[in-house]
Amino acid sequence: MLVGKELLDKARSLSNRPEDEIARGCGYVGPSGRVLRKSFYKALVEAKGYKLRSTNRPGSRSSRGRQAEFRTRVHGNGNLLIGHAYTKKLGLEPGQEFRIEIRRDSGAIWLVPLAEKT
Q1: Three-state SS annotation for the chain
Q2: Who wins on pLDDT, 32 or 25?
Q3: What does the mean pLDDT of the chain come to?
Q4: Which residues contact 29 (CB under 8 A, 6 or more apart)?
Q5: Which residues of 97-116 are buried (b: 16+ CB within 10 A; e: fewer)?
Q6: In-domain check, residue 29
Q7: pLDDT for 96-115, tens place per residue?
Q8: Closest by Cα among 95, 93, 42 to 65
Q9: Is residue 39 part of a domain?
Q10: What residues pair up with 111 in beta bridges, in sequence order?
């Protein structure tokens, strides 16, 4: 992610593009490919010489960003989502396959890795 003069120069060079393209061109993209608009705009303002004060109290939940809580719920369509934070923590890679085992006695769902094909 560009900052300071480099950010301003790159943003100027892309100024005829849509805002999301400018942010992407300056490196403000999250791991999932989502444009990090708030971070981009904040960096632009700071590059212009303004210091922004955080409106969040230090240590408050909203000042830490999104946090993995190790909780989920069944969605209205019946799906159960395991998010990126959890798969990353386990070191899982896209394309890995699992067998789902249901433990009725404990109500647990186990994901058992399938042997990789070589």
Answers
A1: CCCHHHHHHHHHHCCCCCHHHHHHHCCCECCCCCECHHHHHHHHHHHCCCCCCCCCCCCCHHHHCCCCCCCCCECCCCCECCCHHHHHHCCCCCCCCEEEEEECCCCEEEEEECCCCC
A2: 25
A3: 84
A4: 23, 35, 36
A5: eeeeeeeeeeeeeeeeeeee
A6: yes
A7: 899 999 998 998 999 898 98
A8: 42
A9: yes
A10: 100
Asked if residue 77 belongs to a domain, the reply is: no
Domain count, the chain: 1
Least confident of 21-35, 60-74, 86-100: 60-74
Nearest partner of 28 among 2, 4, 59, judged by Cα: 2
Range of the domain at 39: 4-47
